[in-house]
Amino acid sequence: MALQRTFIMVKPDGVKRGLIGEIIKRFEQKGFTLLNAELMTINRTKAEYHYTEHKDKPFFGELVDFITSGPVFAMVWEGENIIEVSRLMIGKTSPAEAAPGTIRGDFANTKAENVIHGSDSLLSAEREIENFFGLLKRNIADDDFRYEDRQSM
Ligand code: UDP
C-alpha cells in the first residue's frame, strides 16, 4: 500500500451541472482526504501545460477552449493507492465505455465534456498539483500543510 496524492478536477461541464458536491461525496465516502480545493477559471497557458501530452492531437484546441470556458473545481486528494483507485472511480474517457457506477459512467455524455479529470500517474499528479496550486510543503509531524510558490496567472 502506498499513500499518494492526486489532482482531481471537476471540469466546466461538471461545475455547470452542479456535480461538485456529488464528486466530493464519492471521494469522502471512499475514505480519501481532501487537502486543498479551489473554484478557478484557468487561462490558456495553464490549460495547455496541463494537457501538454495531447498538444499534437486533433482535439487539443477544442480541449483547451472547453477547459478555459468556465470555472473548474480543482482539488488535491490523498489516500492509499489513490492514483489507481480514483481512475477506477472516474471511469473510462469515453462515456460509451465508462462502466455504470463510475463518475463518467453515471454522469458523462460526451468524450470531450466528460465531467472530471484525474491524474494518471504519480509524475502527472505532481506536475498537475504544482500547475494549479504550487508546491506542497507538508509537515507530516504535526499534519500541517501549506502551498508555496503559487503562480499567479
Ligand atoms: N479528449 C477528447 N477527445 C478524445 C480524447 C480525449 O476531447 O478523443 C479529451 C477528454 O476531455 C479527456 C481529455 O481529452 O478527458 C484527456 O484525454 P485522456 O486520454 O488523457 O483521458 P483521461 O485521462 O481524461 O481519461
Automatic annotation (TrEMBL):
Locations listed in the record: Cytoplasm
EC number(s) reported in the record: 2.7.4.6
Major place of residence: cytoplasm
Catalysed transformations (reactions): a ribonucleoside 5'-diphosphate + ATP = a ribonucleoside 5'-triphosphate + ADP; a 2'-deoxyribonucleoside 5'-diphosphate + ATP = a 2'-deoxyribonucleoside 5'-triphosphate + ADP
Modification sites for Phosphoserine: S124
Phosphothreonine: residues bearing it: T93
First-level EC class: transferase
Transmembrane regions listed in the UniProt entry: none
Cofactor field: Mg(2+)
Gene Ontology molecular-function annotations: nucleoside diphosphate kinase activity
Active site: H117 (pros-phosphohistidine intermediate)
Keyword set, alphabetical order: ATP-binding, Cytoplasm, Kinase, Magnesium, Metal-binding, Nucleotide metabolism, Nucleotide-binding, Phosphoprotein, Transferase
Free-text function comment from the UniProt entry: Major role in the synthesis of nucleoside triphosphates other than ATP. The ATP gamma phosphate is transferred to the NDP beta phosphate via a ping-pong mechanism, using a phosphorylated active-site intermediate.
Subunit details: Homotetramer.
Membership in a protein family: Belongs to the NDK family.
Name used for this protein in its record: Nucleoside diphosphate kinase
Source organism (scientific name): Metabacillus niabensis
Gene that this sequence comes from: ndk
